[in-house]
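## retry 2 of 3
previous attempt timed out at serialization; input unchanged, resubmitting
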Amino acid sequence: MKRLAPGMSPARIPEHQTDTETTDVLVVGAGPAGLMLAAQLVRAGIPTKIIDERTDKTSTGRADGLQPKTLETLKQLGIADGILRKGAKIYDYSFWNSYPDTKLHRTNRDAHFPPVVDVLEPYILLVHQGMIEELFLADMEIRGAYVQRSSTFDSYALDENPNAEYPVIAKYKHNREDKVTRAKYLVGCDGAHSAVRRSMPGNEMQGESVDVFWGVLDGVIETDFPDLWSKCIISSHDKGTILSIPRERNMTRLYIELSTGSEGAKISKAIANQDFVMARGREILAPFTVDWKSVEWFGCYQSNSDYPRSSDSAKIASNFSHANRVFIAGDASHTHSPKAAQGMNVSMHDTFNLAWKLSLVLNSISPASLLASYPTERSKIAQDLISFDYEHANAFVKNDQAALAENFAKNIRFISGVGAVYDANTPLTTPSSTSGLGLIPGELLLPARATRYVDTNPVDIQLDIPLRNQFKIYFLASNYHSALQLLLEICEGISAPNTVMSRASKKSLLASYSAPKVEADEYIQPDRYVIPNLSRIFTFSTITQSPQKDIEFTDLPTLLRPYKWTLYNDRLEENVSPTKKWAGKRGLSDGEVMTVVVRPDGYVGVAEVWGQGMAEKAVGWLEGYFKGVLAV
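## retry succeeded, writing output
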């Protein structure tokens, strides 16, 4: 990669490129990963430019499955309602097999997500990728932001002048005209053949490939196959395998294996036209009949092809960042087979992880070093995905039902999204010294329900507080009045003027950027949770099992009184109780306070239980955590 010499100014750019723009973040690629990132930055008021080589959003095909954690994330963002109404929901899966002496028959059927996977929506939602993109596009447009299309990224260089305000110099073509944008940060979400990744010095995709050839059909089917509306893995002893997935609008997606049998090695894209793929599908499904009333989308892919990723490859980029200024996410950083419904989900959570970190750094609330946690955390998740997917793809190719079922059961929490776990030994995730807690730093907050004190509404706690790039701090006291003195002392300690948390709160009120107001805020009322003139970086919440009638807002410590909408009464069923679930086997005794810090992306940062006389230790513990995360 060509880098600019120290002190080289924009004037040295060729004359036909003098119309240089500036932006805080340049996002390349307007698929789900890029749009997730851009939408979150736009919500935070961060100057953001997003470019894409396509002329419009995805209209058909491509990724289609949303896992439970992704649905939760979209709910937290307040944009899930439309697709929940339109998508097809998969609650179960079945295996079908034929053998030389036995015709095709069902060999297993089970719930897709068993109770051990603690999620609100125990299903996969099937909608095509363009519908997901539309959620983010609409969210951006109401805030005045749009994708610049017909724009093909070429390369970037870094200005080595340490004082450069916009050190990333990106070149691209817009409608075939050369353009230059200078940015503080560049993020490549431009797919498996990422031009941003290719511009990064020494960055390579590492891993292995499974040599397979598949046809993919989205369409409306007529068939006497009985499990059409379940997720099915259908394996013929000599004709290959089909993965059948119900879709929205009465459609079904079939992934049809073509590289099985004596002619498998000879199949090419020229041979594998739509009629050929349909014929192979009928052979695998025999003796059941199948006909297509309509086909909305057809494609083929094989090793090293262009659709839908590079191949049935399990590969990961050697670097997810360059100089803490350039990052890659989604398929640009990891590729795998499309049959486990993981790509779009993991990709969006790559950029969900990065968005809040960029926002805090650009607002000078967190140090730039926070961004180094992005490649650390997300490369770990990518490697976990690759390990799962390589076994998954191999089992498909070998028609090994036992291996498929075993791999699926072993990885079901990861597949759902709730099992994507970060290492709990970083500034952002510190291990608990209290054993037996239900919450584990580096894992997602367990879903729980309680009654909002202010209006007696039962709510899902993990969904109730709007996301505004803030840390959520929960204080749990099973008996509020027994724990009140300890809670008072902790709150007085962390709200003292010179503490890290107090200084960070004051600094957050002076942040360079703020969220633009939109009509939806009239219904969400974010100021109830991120209190103006108090803090833009913290939302405090109190949860107690004491009867509602025994508590008044005036009883709360001064720090907590403004947070009326996050005082929760934990007296619903035990199986949804935050006290029971979060304190786990250890439990919470009268007089104790459990303190939980939840990161802006919903992951538990730290969690501990404190007894009487431990307020000073609790304050030091909170201060120590935020000292490593916030810039004060």
